[in-house]
Known about the structure:
alpha/beta, TIM Barrel, 10 helices, globular, iron-sulfur, S-adenosyl-L-methionine
Amino acid sequence: xxHQGMIIRPPSEADSxxxxxxxxxxxxxxxxxxxxxxxxxxxxxEATIRRDIEFxxxxxxxxxxxxLCDGDALIIPQRKLLSILAEVREGLPWLTxxxxxxxxxxxxxxxxxxxxxxxxxxxxxxxxxxxxxxDAILAEMRKHGTAAAIIEQGRRAREAGFKLNVTVINGxxxxxxxxxxxxxxxxxxxRMQPDQIGALSLMLVPGTELYARAERGEFVPLTVSGLLTxxxxxxxxxxxxxxxxxxxxxxxxxxxxxxxxxxxxxxxDALDAALxxxxx
Length: 280
């Protein structure tokens, strides 16, 4: 497979075929993100993508899921993306699901009819970064779009039939804005009603703008206790009719897999116990 640079994929796509159809991220300006450093955004050529599909047809016959890499494959123009999906279906007919990262920017560029076309063409799940529900934090982190815009595009994704996984970043507001970040993010997630929530803990990556701010003392990251307190406040404020809250990434200090709403109380108890242990 023609995997250029470091490949990023969601934890739930660990066993998927990773088909790299773009390089980097179409936004590429978030202050906290070091995922695609050194990669200039580009859409890969059809011949390279076709060879990778042919490779997967020979060597990846046990995998049932496929994930489109890199950061925002949905940004690919509709005709080209439909062509790629058609080749995937023809070459790998045993697949049961195709997933991709998406953004408010790329979703907004597709009409409702185009999103339904992509669902019918095989995309079953989209992963979208909210990061924070607080507009001031989003602006400071140079994230594209406001919370309201991201919520609206998440709603459109669900209405098109996609399963929606929304990522938030525990600790993104730093020590100064922790409670504000937790409360606003819980409200945004409640409004969006995603199928899954993926909560990652902030990791300061050398070479990023946020890392430099922290080195200068302009951003104070949360302690482990602060991160757990914030995730507890966030989880307590989320009201999903049905869904999963996942904090089982390698960055998380207390792995959580919570079915909402039924599992919220026991998860809050686990967080309380972990915080009590830190205070001993």
